[in-house]
Amino acid sequence: MVERGFKQMLAEANAVIETMAVQDALAVVDDPEIVFVDVRETVELQESGAIPGAVHAPRGFLEFIVDPEGPMHQPVLASGKLLILYCGTGGRSALATKTLVDMGVTNVVSMAGGINAWIEADGPVDK
Predict the structure, then answer these.
(1) What is the pTM (predicted TM-score) of this model?
(2) Percent of the chain having pLDDT more than 70?
(3) Residue among 120, 92, 115, 121 nearest 17 (CA)
């Protein structure tokens, strides 16, 4: 039996994280102080592409990639730049953002609607 389902976990995450609208994210896509972080699985990235310049950090490995002591660490994620996390529709990025907040990362937001909303808004995509 599941005591805390995904809906409750999403509600809890959304209560404590910051969310950025796609239109606001589009406005900063070329900002050198912003890092877009794709938390989807590799196969999803291969199927639909990614935001240009995005760092791939699958949610299952996120803690190991963000932590400077982690075996898969990517230094840009500890650079102090604003991290904008996204997934397919916004659920996983909200949970991933909550994970980073729990780790003490303060410069992180989740992009509402994910890559699907980005594509619908004619955001640039690298295939």
Answers:
(1) 0.96
(2) 100
(3) 92
